[in-house]
Design brief:
Helices cover about 80% and strands about 0% of the residues. With about 210 residues, the protein is mainly α.
């Protein structure tokens, strides 16, 4: 199947998935979320994931089901729910272990586990020393670290650095839109983390 056809199928399927996520997200958060933004993010993620290697598509589906709603909740409530990060982490481990067994890619699995420790450990140390980022972001990081670690060290590094660059851009846009002020002291980090991870994984896929 050609890459273009896979992208089109992923785009369509995740458009349907976005509608199903609305109800699930409502159960996660009592506040009204930006459903249009969730739909757009899910559809874009689906199109990007369809271009990933076949062994990684299940991991992309996990991000659509768990990470997109988690990022949406973070924007509205400044928290990342455990009921989304826990199944994401467990599912990512199962998915990558299965991929390693079926593709004989044990070195990739080792990098994935180290990637989880690196990104998760960095944020954990920062949280313990400064209180930032929030504990939800710390719990989200290992799943994204696993994904990028599987693809390679440079993609893990690109995702981590990219998350901070996107966070700075996100913060600037939030200030301009008066979504928050400098006195707030904290901005949602889950959306730029997720965006950087997906962008790095997609570039890796097209880089061969």
């Amino acid at each position: 199947m050609s890459t273009d056809l896979r992208v089109a199928i992923g785009f369509a399927l995740c458009g349907l998935l976005a509608a199903l996520l609305f109800r699930a997200t409502l159960r996660t958060s009592p506040k009204r979320l930006h459903f249009v933004a969730i739909a757009i993010a899910t559809v874009i993620l689906g199109a990007a994931t369809a271009a990933w290697p076949p062994s990684m598509i299940a991991a992309g589906a996990l991000l659509a089901v768990c990470a997109v709603p988690a990022a949406a909740v973070d924007v509205v409530e400044h928290r990342v729910p455990d009921k989304l990060t826990a199944p994401l982490a467990a599912g990512m481990v199962i998915t990558l272990v299965a991929a390693a067994l079926f593709t004989d890619s044990m070195p990739s699995l080792t990098r994935a586990l180290v990637g989880a420790l690196v990104w998760g450990g960095m944020l954990l140390v920062s949280f313990l020393l400064t209180g930032d980022p929030g504990p939800g972001d710390v719990k989200l990081a290992p799943s994204l670290g696993m994904l990028l670690g599987w693809l390679g060290w440079k993609w893990l590094l690109a995702g981590i650095i990219g998350s901070y660059l996107l966070a700075a851009l996100f913060a600037g846009l939030g200030l301009l839109a008066k979504r928050w002020t400098l006195r707030d002291g904290r901005m949602p980090l889950a959306p730029p983390m997720l965006a950087a991870a997906v962008l790095s994984a997609t570039i890796a896929a097209f880089s061969g």
